[in-house]
Amino acid sequence: MATSAAVDIEAAKKAAAERAVQDHFDPNAKYVGIGSGTTIIYVVDAIKEKSTNPHIQFVPTGYQSRQVIVAAGLTPIAFDSLPSGEVLEVAFDGADEVDDELNCIKGGGACLFQEKLVAEKAKKFVCVADYRKDQSRLLTQWASIPIEVAPIAVHTVQSALVALGSSTPVVRNGILAKSGPLKTDQDFFIIDAPFKPLLTRADVASAADGDLGARTGKWGVEDLAERIKAITGVLEVGIFCGRNGLEAEAVGEHGGQKPVAVYFGMSDGTVKVKAATNA
Ligand SMILES: O=C[C@H](O)[C@H](O)[C@H](O)COP(=O)(O)O
């Protein structure tokens, strides 16, 4: 039987999903991105509730996400079938942890690579989560950064992560009958790499000597994401940072991976919104 805390968490996810859809889903949209995880199921339910438009096509971020779209009776379209030049009106997704600058950790469910592709293709990326994910710094409650890695490179990537200061980067195992490492939708492995809590841009900017990272052994979010991505064998890193879609659009580009808003369902039934100033 589900405990009352577990029931509260599900209610929180649902409340956040309903608010996010109310605020950001346009029933006249052509293309909408749908992320992965447990919270996105409530987003799809809320979209289904609100939309009678059979022409919207939903872009999944992997196998599970596509199943959720199909089960709801909505129409999926593969990311690589999107007509050239088309962008997504909005993409919704879950998050494992979100800081005060809307940087996110994602990949707790092993789906970060396609999630990042879809987020970057959207005018607006919107995240939905429960109150446990709302922290001022990344790696406060969430223990490690998920990193998608080519199986052949797993040991060299682990060594490179240790050199960057990760204490014990581990290859994530499958939890089902088949033993051995978990495989992603790309047939890659996931390494979960713990680091000390990450510094926001504001932390880095406010360091008097400009050398906060070296003194504290802590990395800035963007610096660490860049260093990990540069390791040969890394397909993608589960830190979503940099600019958001609206900031990219303002300079005539696409490619923001940070959400414009994150909706957190709280334990008291309310919904807290952390939004970018340009949202
Ligand atoms: O790999 C999984 C994704 O990044 C999920 O969106 C993330 O882990 C949040 O999942 P949930 O909604 O189940 O907390």
Automatic annotation (TrEMBL):
The keyword Chloroplast does not apply. GO terms for molecular function: ribose-5-phosphate isomerase activity. Its EC number is 5.3.1.6. Pfam families: Rib_5-P_isom_A. Gene3D superfamilies: 3.30.70.260, 3.40.50.1360. GO terms for cellular component: cytoplasm. GO terms for biological process: D-ribose metabolic process; pentose-phosphate shunt, non-oxidative branch. Pathway: Carbohydrate degradation; pentose phosphate pathway; D-ribose 5-phosphate from D-ribulose 5-phosphate (non-oxidative stage): step 1/1. It is an enzyme of class 5 (isomerase). It catalyses: aldehydo-D-ribose 5-phosphate = D-ribulose 5-phosphate. Keywords: Isomerase. PANTHER family: RIBOSE-5-PHOSPHATE ISOMERASE. Belongs to the ribose 5-phosphate isomerase family. This is Ribose-5-phosphate isomerase. The lineage of its organism: Eukaryota, Fungi, Dikarya, Ascomycota, Pezizomycotina.
